[in-house]
Write a structure and sequence with these properties.
The chain is 21% helix and 30% strand. It has 13 helices and 36 strands. The strands form 6 sheets. Strands 6, 7, 8, 9, 11, 12, 14, 15, 19 and 20 form a 10-stranded antiparallel sheet that branches. Strands 21-22-23-26-27-28-29-30 form an 8-stranded parallel barrel, surrounded by 5 helices. Strands 5, 10, 13, 16, 17 and 18 form a 6-stranded antiparallel sheet that branches. α10 (530-540) runs parallel beside α11 (567-574). Keywords: Glycosidase, Hydrolase. This is Alpha-galactosidase.
Length: 709
């Protein structure tokens, strides 16, 4: 069956993925309308859906608010518009006039449908893009809007896509909320009637929400049930609006920006929205997550098949007190642990002695690094490690040479106060000269100092978001900023093919499919408390894979929570993603260093399972039961089980954990104990994990399939 097919008789377009179908048609008014999103259909079966009679609506309702591929503002539409236009004469609205279609094959196993329209009255063109692939059920959608006239147009709303769910008995919405140091808190709640808005107005993805949603009928579990989900590939302000109508339908629309902003279009200018990718799966939330993980590692992350190195970061050891001698001493200790990437954090540049000065002056401090970063980088490389550095290119301290020279480069509104957060202001990356300045010093830093890795931070949200002197600047900056950010990273990586980049924004404040398409991993949270991290990682992993999730082992009592848990527990929690170490190694005892080195060695034996395997959440991080995650490798030849106990109340029964994804009928050997287990017993009757009662306990079990002779 082709990936995209069309019936001239019914007007139905059918998009086919390995396990699902997506069907739509253009109705008699010219509007693109949804037909189906779910299990596989033939073109004839999809055509039968097009022939279904619509329920009679009252004269008060107008067009149904759910069911169009891109609901517009105009006529008798009263739901949340995906496309809202204001023309030069201040009139609004859009009327669909189909003008053609194209089916493209940009790569083997990839097909793209483009449906083209114009407005009936004004010279405005709209193209709806749908991309499907032979190896994933993810459908990628985006919209291109072009001002074909000679007068200015404002897009008050320009969403990437609207998604329609089939009629269900109930609807439940899954998403994440949070704040700094408590990101990715998973919520599953009944979708209320009316409109539910998830958004960021901060100029970044934000700690407080993330641009993805999952919906189900309220019956799905981790292992069972049909789930519809979508994720927006955008790293600036965004909005997703889910709605449930009084007549029992549900859908959602999403794209860039938030209320009160617009996308200006000059004559001849066009705006291409980011991808809003959607996915329908059977097999519960776990199957949905694994499908997103596979899609992200296959089609989003630039080099996901690489094994990420074990990382050390100097922040908790040195803070701002960074110099060549102390960093070399730390690097020697890190190398003894088996670390493969050494990262110098904040404090290496300009007048940086605290967070009050120096941002913007990106040259090594002479008295701390007399010969620049080259000698330190050389020492790190001779120890067999890669060399990384922390940067925050989008920020400036008012106490800096850069700000004194270019005070106009920051986001600001003339006559208004320039509000500082963390003693810093936001550079206006929408300005080409600012982006060019950042690209220039970054490419020199990487090239001149042998830098292999950048930790790219962004430590505050927008404020006084103005762009004086630029027509429509206060609106234009929201999208131009992100476009220039992407461009700087893309150019930097093109200059230095070996460079790897971590996205960070005060922790997990900028994590989305857009930034992940040009970086290698994400700093999940500034909260490194191992117990809190299990909750954060649980929410992060609903959509994003372990291959993108940085996790550190830090010292106790934890700097944020003051909680103390064993070193082994901290390592096991960090081994759920990309293992890093952030403690002060100069204070670790010989016993701790030896235990840490052994655990690093253990991780290296199984990291291919964590970073490239399938994730099964066997028990969640909330409640009195142990938290258990499992990773299954290619062809189910190996598996890793990580279990954590928080100290449950006395008397709770020990319940075996039923493993998933193993080869039926096979046997698996515990790599540590040599004990051989039957896969069917592990899957149907479970495994008792070696978790000590009381206190903080953790375990790691590496299973290797026994090949029959």
């Amino acid at each position: 069956m082709p990936l995209i097919s069309h019936s001239p008789d019914t007007g139905v377009w059918l998009l086919t993925t390995p396990r699902t179908s997506y069907a739509l048609r253009i109705d008699e008014t010219g509007a693109p309308c949804h037909l189906a999103w779910g299990p596989r259909l033939t073109l004839a079966e999809a055509g039968a859906l097009a022939g279904r009679a619509q329920d009679t609506v009252s004269s008060f309702e107008g067009r149904p608010p759910v069911g169009e591929e891109l609901p517009v503002d105009g006529g008798t539409r009263y739901g949340p518009p995906s496309l809202q236009v204001r023309y030069a004469d201040s009139s609004r609205g859009f009327e669909w006039v189909p003008t053609g279609h194209r089916v493209l094959e940009p790569a083997p196993g990839v097909s793209e449908l483009v449906l083209e329209f114009r407005d009936r009255l004004y010279p405005l063109d709209v193209a709806l893009h749908y991309t499907v692939r032979a190896d994933t059920d993810v459908v990628e959608r985006r919209t291109v809007v072009r001002n074909a006239g000679e007068e200015h147009v404002d897009l008050l709303r320009a969403d990437s896509a609207a998604w329609t769910l089939p009629p269900l008995r109930d609807y439940r919405l899954s998403h994440v909320t949070g704040q700094w140091s408590a990101e990715s808190q998973l919520r599953r709640d009944t979708l209320p009637f009316g409109e539910t808005v998830l958004t960021s107005r901060r100029g970044i993805t934000s700690h407080h929400a993330n641009p993805w949603v999952m919906l189900d009928a309220g019956e799905a579990t981790e292992e069972h049930g049909r789930v519809w989900s979508a994720a927006l590939a955008w790293s600036g302000s965004w909005r997703i609006t889910a709605q449930r109508t009084p007549d029992g339908l549900a859908g959602f629309t999403g794209g860039v920006g938030h209320e009160g902003t617009s996308v200006p279009l000059a004559p001849g200018e066009e705006f291409t929205t980011p991808v809003f990718a959607g996915l329908c799966t059977d097999g519960g939330f776990g199957a949905a997550s694994r499908a997103w993980h596979t899609y992200t590692t296959t089609h989003v992350l630039p080099r996901a098949r690489e094994l990420a190195p074990v990382l050390y970061n100097s922040w908790e050891a040195t803070g701002f007190d960074v110099d060549e001698a102390s960093q070399k001493a730390l690097a020697e200790r890190a190398a003894l642990l088996g670390v493969e990437l050494y990262v110098v954090d904040d404090g290496w540049f300009g007048a940086r002695r605290s967070d009050r000065a120096g941002l913007g002056d990106w040259t090594p401090t002479p008295e701390r690094f007399p010969e620049g970063l080259g000698p330190l980088a050389g020492s790190v490389h001779r120890l067999g490690m890669r060399f990384g550095i922390w940067v925050e290119p989008e920020m400036v301290n008012p106490d800096s040479a850069l700000y004194r020279e270019h005070p106009d480069w920051v986001l600001h509104v003339p006559g208004r106060a320039r509000t500082e957060m963390r003693n810093q202001l936001v550079l206006n990356f929408a300005r080409d000269e600012v982006a060019e300045w950042a690209y220039g010093w970054l490419t020199r830093l990487v090239g001149d100092h042998g830098v292999d890795f950048l930790k790219w931070d962004m430590n505050r949200a927008f404020g006084e978001s103005g762009w004086p002197g630029q027509r429509d600047g206060n609106d234009r900056l929201w999208t131009r900023y992100v476009a220039n950010l992407y461009d700087v990273i893309d150019r930097l990586r093109a200059d230095h093919p070996g460079l790897r980049v971590e996205t960070c924004s005060g922790g997990g404040g900028r994590v989305d499919l857009g930034i992940l398409s040009r970086t290698d991993q994400a700093w999940t949270s500034d909260n490194t408390d191992a117990v809190d991290r299990l909750v954060i990682q649980h929410g992060f992993g609903q959509v994003y894979p372990a291959r993108a999730m940085s996790a550190w082992v830090t010292d106790v009592p934890n700097q944020l929570t003051a909680r103390s848990v064993p070193l082994r527990f901290r390592f096991h929690a960090a081994m759920c993603g990309l293992l890093g170490i952030g403690g002060d190694l100069t204070r670790w005892s010989e016993e701790e260093l030896a235990e840490g080195a052994a655990l690093v060695a253990d991780y290296k034996k199984v990291r291919h399972l964590v970073q490239h395997g399938d994730l099964y959440r066997l028990s969640g991080p909330l409640g009195e039961e142990p938290t258990v995650v499992q990773y299954v490798g290619e062809d189910a030849a190996e598996a890793l089980v990580l279990g954590f106990r928080y100290g449950p109340r006395h008397g709770l029964p020990r319940v075996p954990v039923r493993l998933r994804g193993l080869t039926p009928g096979a046997r698996y050997r515990d790599a540590r104990t040599g004990v051989v287990h039957h896969a069917n017993v592990l899957g149907e009757y479970g495994m008792l994990l070696d978790l000590a009662p009381g206190g903080w306990s953790s375990t790691a079990v590496h299973l290797v399939r026994v090949e029959e002779v």
